[in-house]
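Issue: copy button drops trailing tokens. Both records pasted manually instead:
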Amino acid sequence: MVYAPELRTHAQKVCTLYKKAMRQIEAYYGGARHVVRYHQVLLRNRFDVNACVSDPKDQRLLYRVGEHELFTTQHPMPIAKFPNSVGIAGGVAYGRVVEPPDWVLDYWHPLEKAQYPEYFKRRECRKREYIEKWEKGELM
């Protein structure tokens, strides 16, 4: 499979850059909402001043300068975008739900299993099939 970069317009790239810069401001000044808002207004002004630039070369240059500035001033522990985000700044809900392994169901009491008869009937058939395949050597 060949990697093909996503085609986006200059306006879409600028909007993404703006949003990333806003998130970065939130990461730096997260505790005080009025300080965050002040810096976001200053950032918006910087973008609005350059909104009237119509030369494509100048637009690309401004975009590259903005990306470079965003990269050089990035926060060491950025705020996660979504609750289940993975990575350095993992979301607050990442890894919260632990899926128990299948063998735990073998230790259920028969009265608990009786509440889900169809599921455990199907599960026993699958376990039997798995053991047969294991003994034949198909799973190695």
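Record 2 (pasted manually too):
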Amino acid sequence: MLTSISRRFLLSPSSHSPLPPLFYQILGSISPFHNSSVASTEVMASFHQLLRMKPRPSVIEFNKLLSALVRMKDFQSAILLSKQMESVRIKPNLYTFNILINCFSHLERLNCGFSILAKIFKLGLEPTIITFTTLINGLCMDGQVDDAVDLFDKISALGYQPNLYTYNVIVKGLSKIGNMYAAISLLKRMTERGCEPDVVTYTTIIDGLCKHNLVTEAFDIFMKLRSRGISPNVITYSSLIHGLCCISKWKKALVLLNDMLDRNVAPNVITYNSLIHGLCWSNNWKEAFMLFNRMLDTNVAPDVVTFNILVDELFKEGMIVKAECMVSMMIGRGIVPDVVTYSSLIDGYGLHGLMRKANKVFQVMAKKDCEPDVQTYSILINWFCKRKRIDAAVELLEEMLDKDGRVEDAKDLIAKLSTDGLQPNIYTFNIIIDGLSRGKSMDKAYRVFRKMEENGILPDNCSYNVIILGFLRHKDFSRASQLIHEMRDKGSLQIIENNDFLKLL
């Protein structure tokens, strides 16, 4: 399709009569930064007002409404309005099609985006670099970075000159999948082709390098950015600070923070969170709290992540009352605790043997509509096991399985308990086998059944009954019969009453 491009399309200016004052009143009433459903409804209403105008405004004015919807991220409504435009014979232009490709890309409907490209060709229009960049961005968002690079190379070969935004899109895609060598190569290619990288290009690469633990290389790129006279922004600094903290270079990170301040680049909550987390992780909790106070003094509002880091650290330091005060402060500032907050509280109380409080927090989660995840269950079950409360641990495991059949979560939990040196007992295995056999995972149930012995736990009558009943439910009478004979051979024949079961004896 791309090889059929042979000429440039010049969009001729439309000639139409002056627009009535009502049109400008309509557009003026729409806030470009408002992304609520109310604003979308206003745009839709404005669209229908434009349709009723005589003479009807040109497609350019309708495109402004489509653009407003895109700014609100209401892509579905933009597509709907474009269909209505065509139904009343408002001829779309290339800008309209670019908007639609963008909408389909964000909705992960790339096939529709490429169909729009085909329509552009069919109408005798020629796409611009903006059209292709929008498609490239859609491919990158969908994780099809190799296809995005392929399209980039094809359009370059056809004579299209990629702009800065095109390069930034590709660099972001490559960095996201960890292909940092290709991202840096593209950075060099940009310069060779006369397209100067900007702070976004450099920051994207620095962030990608840091996320893949290539912090030294990221620092080299940071110095290169400066040598080219480009001022790093808060995102550049925050990415590098986060990378340094992840490799315990918190002193160097603090130097970078001071450099930010010297250059009048104001740190944000992400900058402080990275530093506070790095300091806590390095057991420098006093410095972490000094930074927290600096945040408050400079009117940088801490978020749920900030409080979660500090609550966790306070518990580890045995400062239970201060940790509780921190949670109160968090709620007082209107910040809603999340699953990480609750999990930190449960872990903190468990660490200090306050199991009643830990369990109470777990119960509060349900009342606050905060669904515990596998980590939450793992923490509480872990502490119950360490406190020899096996009955409570098993009860929680059963609860996991009852909630939407969370068998995989339960299996992950068993693996974690084993890693932590807490040997799962026969009750744990029986619960998992029963959960798997009640679903569509009999093969997995059987593997867990056999894994019991690998863990030094011999299956009991309950284990056999659960797995045999599972095979009966799935009409696998052969394996059920084999297991019954295995029970006999081991001198164990306490079988539960079940008609299908008894027929095999």
